[in-house]
Amino acid sequence: MVLTFLIVMFVLMMNFVWRYIDDLVGKGLDGSVIVELLCYAMANMIPMGLPLATLFAAIMTMGNLGENYELLAMKSAGMSLLKILRSLLVVICIVAIGSFFVANNLVPYSNKKMYSILYDISQQKQTLEFQDGMFFNGVDNLNIRVGTQDPETKLLRDVLIYDNRNISGNMSTTVADSGYIRLSDDKKFLLVTLYNGESYEQTRNSSWHDESSLRRSYFKEQNGAIPTSGFNFERTNDDLFTSPQTKNINELDHSIDSLETLVTVSTARSYDPLLKEQIFQEDISILPTPDSLKVDIDKTAFQKALYEDTIAKLSIRERQQIWNDARTSAASSRATFSWDESSSKESMNQLHRSKAEWHRKISLPVSIIIFFIIGAALGAIIRKGGLGMPIVVSVLFFVVYYIISITGEKLAIEGSWNAIAGMWLSTFILAPLSIFLIYKATNDSNLFNVEWYYAHIKKFTDKLGSKLEPIFRKIKALGGKIGGVFKRRPKSDKNNQTEES
Fold it and tell me: What is the Cα–Cα distance from 27 to 37, expressed in whole angstroms?
């Protein structure tokens, strides 16, 4: 199991590295940062790698015992398959219990650290590297082009710098024959030293489209320090990265209770005020009534009709004012409802994710035990050890399990299914399969024996052929009689023969 676990984790780690290779390369990261990120990523992959490693190990172990006839010897001594697996099942139960603590304590901590490091890496800029004839845009509002660069002395030739950092809009252009550009030791300043060049500064004012000035200056040597940010790797507080994946069971329970209350409140706040206060108001005098048309309005249908009739007597300007006020009120109501609705949807989304993560932590130990039973049964049936056939069969089963798990998880997160049905879907499907396979392995079934299938198929075809042979004979005899009738008929001309045929 240790061997298969290391192989699985290596494959998963390569997938992670290829996924984030573009973010890690070219930023001058310290080796300790990359190693720390890989360690946290490896801890995050344990819930996925441990069931697959258990399946590999179970098939290889029982396959080796079957291939070397040791399993047959134990069964000949009167030991059943369940008795043979008893000690291994105890070990797997211990592993399953340990996996729960890993998923509940180690994985949330690793996720929080990993998200923090990935965010810090994404915020860090590329290292200061110049390519011949290419512009470097690593500094905000500063573009640098270098003709050639000496790889040994780092001397830059044919330097062109466009500087747009001035807040007032002034732009300066610097051209130099040679120079040096490097970062300071604390990576907070860009140290520039140029030789034999010219500087052009275009001064702009509020009426730059009519009046602007250009200043030109020469220099033999020019030194400058340009403030920069983003080149130094800075760590962010880990507590800022909170999600359902960074919480344990107790924190998820608290989050689920809070989110359920929040969803109820936000939903009521979204729909009830819209219906009672904005659309179906008890008081119909929503808009102010002009003094000339003020009447005593009751809540009876007659008085409402009278009030509506008075609106028709208003002038065009007063009607326009009422229309503008009504449109403004409707737009305000719609904006308020949209904000409350988006808040309610976000709370509901977080609630579904929290419930799915809660069930994920519980379902992991169960999936490990189920994979062990499936692997042990398959190994006893296949009776092949090593890394050949067991890996093929294990990968096929794991792919099916992964597809089912992803489908159920997506439905649970979207809220289409209950969290229990979505997160336990793969368990509900694989548990009966594991019982069926262990039953077949206990009875020495030829489930994966090709010759057994070939013999039964041949036996079925022979039996089917023996039953269909009398029918074929009758059809053949009937065909002979029909042919004899046509042969006894008199010959006719060619047209008659064509019509008869």
Answer: 15
**pLDDT tens, position by position, 126-142:** 667 778 888 887 777 78
Q: Which of 353, 493, 355, 341 is nearest to 420 (CA)?
A: 355
Could you tell me the residue ranges of all domains in the chain? 2-124+364-442, 135-227, 243-356
Residues 6+ apart with CB under 8 A from 64: 70, 379, 385, 386
**Tally of CA atoms within 13 A in the half-sphere of 162 that contains its CB:** 9
Residue 83: count other Cβ atoms within 10 Å of its Cβ.
11
pLDDT digits (tens, 9 = 90+) for 377-386: 888 888 777 6
Its pTM stands at: 0.66
User: In Å, how far are 160, 195, 222, 381, 432 from 157, measured between CA atoms?
Assistant: 9, 10, 15, 73, 73
Tell me the residue type at 129: E
Of 46, 40, 39, which is closest to residue 99 (Cα–Cα)?
Answer: 46
DSSP line for 99-158: HHHIIIIIHHHHHHHHHHHHHHHHHSPPP----BT-EEEEETTEEEEEEEE-TTT--EEE
Q: Indicate the SS3 state at residue 185.
A: coil
Rounded distance between C-alpha atoms, residue 378 and residue 75, angstroms: 16
Give the pLDDT score at 457. 80
Which tens digit of pLDDT belongs to each residue from 378-437? 888 887 776 677 777 778 888 888 899 899 989 988 888 888 888 999 889 989 988 888
What three-state secondary structure class fits 379? helix
